Amino acid sequence: MNQAPVSCIPNTSKMSKTKKVLEESREIQNPELDLADKGIATFEEMPGLLNMLYITRLTLSHNKIKNVPPGLANLVNLEILTLANNHLEELPLSLSSMPKLRILNLSFNRLYGLPRGFGAFPMLEVLDLTYNNLSEKTLPGNFFMMETLRALYMGDNDFEYLSSDIGNLKNLQILVLRENDLIELPKEIGELTRLREFNVQGNRLTILPPEIGNLDMISNKSVFRLDGNEWVTPIADQLQVGISHLMDYLRSETYRILYSRYLTNKPEIPPPCIDKAKKISRIR
Amino acid sequence: MSPTPMPSLTGGMSFDNMMCSRCGEGFEPHEKIVNSTGELWHQQCFVCAQCFRPFKEGIFYEFENRKYCEHDFQVLFAPCCGKCGEFVIGRVIKAMNANWHPNCFRCEMCSGELADSGFIRNAGRALCHECNAKVKAVGLGKYVCHKCHGLIDDQPLKFRGEVYHPYHFICTACGVELDSSAREVRSRPGFANNDMNELYCLRCHDKMGIPICGACRRPIEERVVTALGKHWHVEHFVCAKCEKPFFGHRHYEKKGLAYCETHYHQLFGNLCFVCNQVIAGDVFTALNKAWCVHHFACSMCDQKMNQKTKFYEFDLKPACKKCYEKLPIEFRRRLRRQHEATPKKLVPA
């Protein structure tokens, strides 16, 4: 459905519409700029955008943007940047120096990696990386240094392992790892005491570190999604009865012993369960 | 040695065998003769053994059979006071290797007169019995009762800034003998002077309705905060999370605990997902999150949505219909399969 190559014939009606939106925005100094679904392929189609320093929100979802110019970081007042559903394959390093950026949506793109030093955002609170091609091998070293993060969406990527540095994200309330290839979870997730949404649906997990039992996942404000994994029988049994039973079980002495036995005698790693070849993000 | 001044006397006796005690001569008839304690003198011979002058007002002092005027006696024989340096006439206190006027010999700590009550030598100082007991008590780490000056072996009772044996007092209300659990009550609130304080036994104190702080369990004599069905010292009524006092700022109650605005919302989820600020006006609640009404928008295109807008959800994020339909078909197929597997949560919401 998504046509990859950009058409050679300039789509004049869309082009003019983009410019019109920009002009109107400038006239009333509107701090929120909506350019979703305008067929934009490059930033050159948005002349003067990088000088509109007053804007606090920029929405460019559902376009065909491949590259973000480093100059975007000139927009120092930007708090919300939405680039969902574009054709991004890489990002400029300058992005992470944006001083006020709080919400960054990069979901449904074609990112295979993130620039070195990406984790330097001073204020980032919500980072949406859903549906890309990221894995532990392509994350920059300082990725888990974004202590201000309260929501991290990494569903539909290619992670097999998660760094133990995740424990640094002390303010994390939402962590989505749905439909990756996760084989195990680090025990440091148990340190994320403020976590109230945790989704590991559709991975290759077999066991859980007992430290997960420390998380408050049974209050009515918490959502813990675990289905679609290859859990060992005791975990699968507890899950059948309910999350609260599972959490009690993870804290029990029985499980502690069982877990250390699993660590020395690891359960077989299940094969990847989702065929990712069909993912749009794979298009090169 | 305590010489006493003696009145001089004159009187007539038989002249024949009378002679002057000083010069040994006889007396002329009608001559004035001085008679003192059975001895006789010519008037001109009855003089000070030192200065040969008559005794002023007839007062003399005798020492080793010789008579002296007051001045010469003092110069020759009278003791000097160890404190003021003056001669000590009359009663002399000999103590601590010196002589003292009775009202110059005082306790070195409390300055009370020691002449009649006796004293105790303590480290080179003369102390009264009470002060000595106090010094000893301090050495033992104990208090001395301010009333009976005895050592307090058990818990002392503090009252008006001093310590006492509790049994010297009775409860102001019921008259029962007090123990150390008695409470001192400021009888005139607002006055700092503790001379006005009174003592009550614990039972009466509790009945007096003096509020007890729910945090420290001590009586509250200053401002009282009443909240959560208890009383609190202003500085003890604090946020259950950050433990900072509210000091009159608004607090929020949850399950019998009080929270500051920030922590109440942080803990109980009324922070807007977009602005991360406490939601002041109406709250939009959905997908395990809350939004300011004007911040509720599609998570993909940022278009504002309201109660009536139909939206889809994935990963507990809202997506408007237009955005959802632009998502990859294979993704939507997977979502649909997932939702069929968990039929409780139906989408669209």
Give an overview in words:
The complex is a heterodimer of chains A (284) and B (349). Chain A has 284 residues and is α/β, with parallel strands linked by helices. Chain A has 4 helices and 9 strands; from the N terminus they run αβββββββββααα. Chain A has one domain: Alpha-Beta Horseshoe (Leucine-rich repeat, LRR (right-handed beta-alpha superhelix)). Helix content of chain A is 17%, strand content 10%. In chain A, α2 crosses α3. In chain A, 40% of the residues are buried. Chain B has 349 residues and is of the alpha+beta class. In chain B, the strands form 11 sheets. In chain B, strands 1-2-3 form a 3-stranded antiparallel sheet, with no helix packed on it. The N and C termini of chain B lie far apart (119 Å). The N terminus and C terminus of chain B are likely disordered.
Give the integer mean of the pLDDT values of chain A.
90
Q: How many structural domains can be distinguished in the coordinates of chain B?
A: 5
CATH topology grouping of chain A: Leucine-rich repeat, LRR (right-handed beta-alpha superhelix)
Terminal Cα span of chain B: 119 Å
Instruction: Work out the strand percent of chain A.
Output: 5-15%
Which CATH top level class of chain A fits?
Answer: Alpha Beta
Low-confidence runs of chain B: 1-12, 343-349
Tally of helical runs of chain B: 6
Determine the structural class of chain B based on helices, strands and strand pairing: alpha+beta
In spatial order, strands of the major sheet of chain A run: 1-2-3-4-5-6-7-8-9
Number of domains as seen in the coordinates of chain A? 1
Main location (chain B): other
Protein name (chain B): LIM domain-containing protein
GO molecular function (chain B): metal ion binding
Organism (chain B): Photinus pyralis (Common eastern firefly)
